[in-house]
């Protein structure tokens, strides 16, 4: 994705272990990878995709690209050799759990800290540390985005404070906490900069091979969900993005930090503000269990969004909810089903909107800035009737985010870095 802004051309790349890349050759590779998931060499495929993406940039634009940044899947972790940068171990993917490390991490971290989840980066690091006997002295930890950026700038050992959150970095103190630094494996931790900070010039061999400018800089990145938030350009406290994908995820820009492990709510730092987020299990997955996408479109057309639906559901795909109600036993409530499918869908959409309203209200109760405006991303964003229902239920302006691609958010970080260099 290329972002033209202020006469600068910046390049943001989205690297994900979950989704495809956005450019043609990248997509082909991901399709190929999906087919042979079991045998895939992730590191090789990420590297290959990165360089194919650079090749996809039209030749005549390469000379005027000022800056590059990359977002990657949060908690996708690599253990590499600190001098050569080569992986010492297969990468730990974002959703991989390391239950063996969890009790150890819980014994050193503060209660309910973000790292106290089996899939946190810190659990992955501890699990690796306790598994291997050799190469410990020469090892270093990087996240997926950091490693791909390293391929471009060549300075090993740099990350950003968004990616570093799940390894235990404290973005408020702007340092790793003492309980982490006192561990022997803390020597593997990368140095941390703000997202969008220039790290170095694009490596000369890459510049010359691909025809990029000699002053093209490479900047620190962020995680994929933060990049998607940045893409919506919700830059003032009170602005929020609701993602209506398979689940309902909300992210609100706040002046204050809010963390509450009971609801899975935590905050990422964004310069002098905080991005507070939480995710409900309700969302599009439930709609898909009942209707096809075509039915959703046709039935939605017939809904009168100004009318309040009397139906009160709690749509969940399976038992259990975390946010805005923390109840692992909560059962889905989708009855009574009226004869009319239009009324049924209206009731479900309105019930999901009420959960969304409750979610924003809980964030406010927990101390976040009051929400003022909501941008929408994800598959549900195209449903205009639902947008109208949500506007009524939330009592707020709701609109579709103009940009939702994470790569666009990464390009905005690249722009930030380029502007810093220009000052
Ligand atoms: P994810 O990336 O989480 O898989 P997407 O952002 O691709 O999700 O959105 C897919 C979801 O969008 C599906 O679960 C589907 O139910 C929902 N969806 C698709 N079309 C509509 C529509 N017209 N109205 C509401 N929801 C829709």
Question: How do you describe this structure in short?
Answer:
35% of the residues lie in helices and 19% in strands. With 423 residues, the chain is α/β, with parallel strands linked by helices.
Q: Low-confidence stretches at least 5 residues in length (pLDDT < 50)?
A: 1-8, 19-25
The number of helices is: 14
Distance between the termini: 25 Å
* Strand element count: 16
CATH superfamily of the largest domain: ATPase, nucleotide binding domain
User: What fraction, in percent, of the residue positions are helical?
Assistant: 25-40%
CATH class annotation of the largest domain: Alpha Beta
Shape field: globular
Query: What is the CATH topology assignment of the largest domain?
Result: Nucleotidyltransferase, domain 5
Instruction: Describe the sheet with the most strands.
Output: 6 strands, mixed
């Amino acid at each position: 994705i290329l972002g033209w802004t202020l006469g600068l051309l910046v390049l943001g790349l989205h690297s994900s272990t979950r989704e495809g890349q956005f450019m043609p050759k990248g997509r082909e590779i991901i399709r190929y990878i999906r087919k042979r998931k079991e045998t895939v060499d992730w590191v090789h495929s990420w590297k290959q995709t990165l360089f194919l993406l650079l090749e996809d940039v039209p030749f005549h634009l390469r000379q005027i690209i000022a800056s590059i940044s990359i977002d990657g899947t949060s908690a996708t972790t690599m253990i590499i050799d600190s001098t050569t940068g080569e992986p010492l171990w297969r990468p730990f993917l974002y959703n991989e759990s390391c239950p063996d490390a969890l009790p150890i991490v819980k014994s050193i971290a503060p209660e309910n800290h973000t790292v106290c989840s089996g899939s946190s980066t810190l659990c992955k690091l501890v699990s690796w540390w306790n598994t291997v006997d050799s190469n410990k002295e020469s090892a270093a930890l990087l996240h997926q985005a950091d490693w791909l950026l390293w391929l471009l700038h060549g300075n090993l050992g740099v990350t950003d404070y968004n990616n570093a959150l799940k390894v235990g970095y404290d973005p408020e103190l702007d340092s790793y906490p003492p309980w982490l630094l006192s561990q022997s494996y803390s020597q593997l931790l990368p140095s941390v900069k703000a997202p969008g900070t220039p790290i170095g010039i694009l490596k000369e061999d890459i510049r010359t091979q691909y025809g990029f400018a000699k002053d093209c800089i490479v900047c620190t990145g962020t995680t994929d969900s933060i990049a998607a938030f940045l893409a919506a350009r919700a830059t003032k406290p009170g602005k929020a993005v609701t993602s209506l994908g398979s689940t309902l995820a909300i992210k609100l820009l706040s002046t204050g930090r809010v963390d509450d492990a009971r609801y899975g709510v935590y905050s990422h730092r964004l310069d002098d503000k905080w991005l507070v987020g939480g995710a409900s299990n309700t969302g599009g997955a439930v709609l898909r269990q009942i209707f096809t996408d075509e039915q959703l479109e046709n039935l939605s057309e017939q809904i009168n969004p100004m009318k309040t639906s009397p139906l009160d559901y709690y749509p969940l795909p399976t038992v259990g909810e975390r946010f805005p109600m923390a109840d692992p036993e909560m059962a889905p409530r989708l009855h009574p089903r009226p004869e009319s499918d239009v009324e049924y869908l209206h009731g479900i959409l309105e019930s999901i909107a009420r959960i969304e309203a409750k979610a924003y209200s809980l964030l406010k109760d927990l101390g976040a800035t009051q929400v003022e405006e909501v941008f929408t991303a994800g598959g549900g964003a195209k449903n205009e009737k639902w947008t109208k229902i949500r506007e009524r239920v939330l009592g707020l302006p709701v609109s579709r985010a103009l940009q939702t691609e994470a790569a666009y958010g990464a390009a905005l970080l690249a722009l930030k870095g380029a502007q810093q260099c220009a000052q």
